[in-house]
Amino acid sequence: MDTSYLLPSDAEPTYDRASVSSAGAESSTSSSTLRHRNRTLTHEGVSLASDGKWFSRGVTYDKKHIVRYDEKRIYRFFVFTFGGSVFDIKQQRATWIQGFVLLLIAAIVAVATVYETNVPEQHNTTESSTASNDAWAYLQQTSVTINALVVFLLGFHTADVKTRWWALRIALERIQGHVTAIALLCSTFLPHKERITETIIRYGMTCHDLMWVDNAPSGGGDLSGLISRGALTEAEAAELRNNTNRVTILLEWIMMLLHKEYSDPEQTELSDLFMDKFFDVAEEIRQGCQTISTHLRTQMPFPYVHLLSVMVKLALLTMAIESGPDAAYAYIQGRYSWVLISALKLLIMNFFYQGLLELQVILSNPFGDHPAHFPHFTFQKALESNCRSVIAQRRWRGGDGSQMPPFLQKLAESSKTSTLRKE
């Protein structure tokens, strides 16, 4: 098995593409396969267009994830782009079910109100009418109070979750940048150690891959995908399977290889400065992975989250109870359009309140399969492209690092000649 899943600089990936429907709909049986020699990188999911992505209503998808969206189109026109949003029926089925349950509660209250209104006058005393009005006023006041508290707490909680999400993105970018730095260091100081260099870069890229494997919300840890893609050999995967801190082990393997080269008396390319710099880069990758792990394994305090959830449910319940009499009186007066408006208002408030809770679930761990999660394939492909472009420059470097592209060589010779003239 090939020890590297990096494509060489002169090889471009070729795709087996399935047709893309005009609406850009997902196909459960379609796949995109990246092939090179005997290696196969398969991505199950949606059909891929010519650039490896598909586009629908201002949103660009890669596999199942949203890569980019057009802010202008979303803000101005395509507010009904539901895929990947809190209105997505497939992803947010519980929110839709909850909305219909609230409508059912409102309907029951409305029927009871209509029945009470049709009670004969002798059974509808002044005292009962006054008590009913007082209870109705108290319910409205309670609803206003609960809604004010919910809006206040949801605002702070959403800001906290967004801050944690951005910290995860920064940590991931930190890993990506330092894996590219590993490729740069190896290409510069180990230009003739191709097998060692590619193995080290492969381990670095696997550290990036493991962020999705180990941190998947559904429970990760399966290394079979990395084996099939050539990221790990069977022996390497067997060593990693029973370990929880896999990134640290991969970094330790990198340092073992470098120390072996450094200890070789015939090795003159590695210096103490290089080893120190490489250790710093490896430590930055480890810290980035640790930051991600800490954020994902340290949840918001349970009493706070539970209280917020209960308050949202109470707010929606009081809204449903309020909507019932409003719809009933509108029905009695023959204003049937207001009955529909009351139902729509309840559904909209359900999506606003429950949607914010669901949004926080989505943002709390962005390493899953939800369309709004980090696009694994896009990130990995970009990282591979960066490393490949760095490795491609290795052909200019000689044993002493004196070789360089012709235009740089010409500039260096010109500068050297100018210095000699001054002397």
Task: Provide a quick synopsis of the model.
With 423 residues, the chain is mainly α. Helix content is 63%, strand content 6%.
Could you describe the 3D structure shown?
It is built from twelve helices and six strands. Mean pLDDT is 76; it is low at 7-55. The protein has 423 residues and is mainly alpha-helical. 63% of the residues lie in helices and 6% in strands. It is elongated and about 100 Å long. β5 (59-62) and β6 form a beta hairpin.
Distance between the ends:
57 Å
> What is the ordering of alpha helices and beta strands?
EEEEEEHHHHHHHHHHHH
Major sheet characteristics: 3 strands, antiparallel
Cα-atom radius of gyration: 30 Å
User: Uncertain segments of ≥5 residues (pLDDT<50)?
Assistant: 7-55
**Percent in helix:** 55-70%
Give the count of helical stretches: 12
- Indicate the structural class: mainly alpha
Beta fraction: 5-15%
3D shape: elongated
Lateral arrangement of strands in the main beta sheet: 1-2-3
Q: What integer is the average pLDDT? A: 76
Strand runs, count: 6
